[in-house]
Amino acid sequence: MKVLITGGAGFIGSNVADGLLEKNYEVVIVDDLSNGRKENLPEEAKFYKCDIRDKKLYSIFKEEKPDIIIHNAAQLSVRISVENPLMDADINIMGGLNVINACHTYNINKIIFASSGGTVYGEQKYFPANEKHPTNPISPYGVAKLATENYLYYFYKTYGLKYISLRYANIYGPRQDPYGEAGVVAIFSNKILEGKNPTINGDGLQTRDYVYVGDVVDINLKAIESDFTGLLNVGTAKETTVVELFNILKEVSGKDDVKEIHGPPKEGEQRRSQLSYGLAKKVLGWQPRVSIEEGLRLTYHWFKNH
What we know:
Shape: globular
Low-confidence stretches: none
CATH superfamily of the domain at 2-172 and 211-235 and 276-289: NAD(P)-binding Rossmann-like Domain
Radius of gyration: 18 Å
Helix content: 40-55%
CATH class of the domain at 2-172 and 211-235 and 276-289: Alpha Beta
Strand order of the largest sheet: 3-2-1-4-5-6-11
Largest sheet: 7 strands, parallel
CATH topology of the domain at 2-172 and 211-235 and 276-289: Rossmann fold
Number of helices: 11
Number of strands: 13
């Protein structure tokens, strides 16, 4: 079976590509390398440098005839979406629609979409949120993810294009960009390794549901094999504050002199996020296996060695 991954040179996409190759899938990667890195590309995967908004995407689909698309390519940052909502919409909505339309044009069996449970629900009304929780995103990034999900539903109902939208919580792990706007674990790990004090936005008591990237690879593999169509949360049903996260990384590093510094809170940042994985467990047999302590240890030591 051939799987084409958009954004396959990025953090999540490249980890998923490695997981697929280990299971003997044929892998094609499409990435414009704006966020992704060439060194993340597996040698066994075929690579095309292409923006998902480009018409060239259609010729790639025509040439490669993939069975399944995993759509990960995106503008990644909530904060950048707040600063520049037009750019975010252009990449995440128009780019996403271009990928979906290419799937329809070339009769792709299924598309697996990297959505965002951390943003589409907005300020949660109950914890943990399941897939029936109201969707009230408070950032353009969340609005764009939700719009893409709605397009997927339309193409499924109208043309029969099967899809699974994976509503990711906060994903962390090896290869996350420590210099970008998103990815607090990578940013903190890098700062600690450089002997600097990480800056925590606001009081640091905002919570997120952190999922290790290895568990994300696992759910993508299960999604490929499943007949399920629809939305699935990818979370741990556990909340961790930014201060707790900092303290675990400090302990893992063994650097007692590292201090927490607090900066101003960021606009468009929600207070709490916690996702139920009950439906994913029911329909895919998936559940998170890596604890936050173990995941942070693995991640910190990866950054230390790279």
